[in-house]
Design brief:
49% of the residues lie in helices and 24% in strands. The chain is an alpha/beta fold. Helix 1 packs across helix 2 and helix 3 crosses helix 4. The mean pLDDT is 92.
Length: 136
């Protein structure tokens, strides 16, 4: 079952997708935020093009596990996405994924410009990896 992960930011949306078996993960694209309607339409298009069966939205919980303003925004976005697509939309704690994504890109030799360009996709890959591991 193919799963799409979303790292929702205020300026960009990072996306990553798994293969049918949930073994491999690859980045898809970074979507520049626009209007809510346009953002949701692009994600719906990706769900259809990639034949996704589930969508996982990263939920930025605080270190103590509570939901702050950023997490509430992600929950509202997930609710709006549920209304537009016909697959399950779930959330996954994304604590420290941006830090981990940056660290992985440094290990891969990315310069600071490439890290900025790709950080959202890498964060989405980490969200997806964590979700798939938890699901096993």
């Amino acid at each position: 079952m193919r799963v799409l992960a979303i790292d929702l930011g205020s300026k960009r949306i990072g996306t990553a997708v798994s293969d049918e078996l949930g073994i491999s993960i690859r980045p898809v694209e970074t979507i520049r935020r626009s209007t809510l309607g346009q953002d949701l339409a692009r994600l719906k298009q990706l769900v259809e093009e990639l034949e996704v069966r589930e969508v996982v939205v990263g939920l930025p919980l605080r270190l103590d596990g509570t939901a702050g303003e950023a997490a509430q925004k992600c929950l509202r976005f997930a609710d709006a996405l549920r209304e537009r697509i016909e697959v399950d939309v779930l959330t996954q704690d994304e604590k420290l994924t941006s830090y981990e994504a940056d660290r992985e890109m440094i290990e891969l030799g990315f310069d600071s410009k490439r890290r900025r360009e790709r950080s959202d996709e890498f964060a989405a890959m980490i969200i997806l990896r964590d979700y798939l591991e938890k699901r096993k």
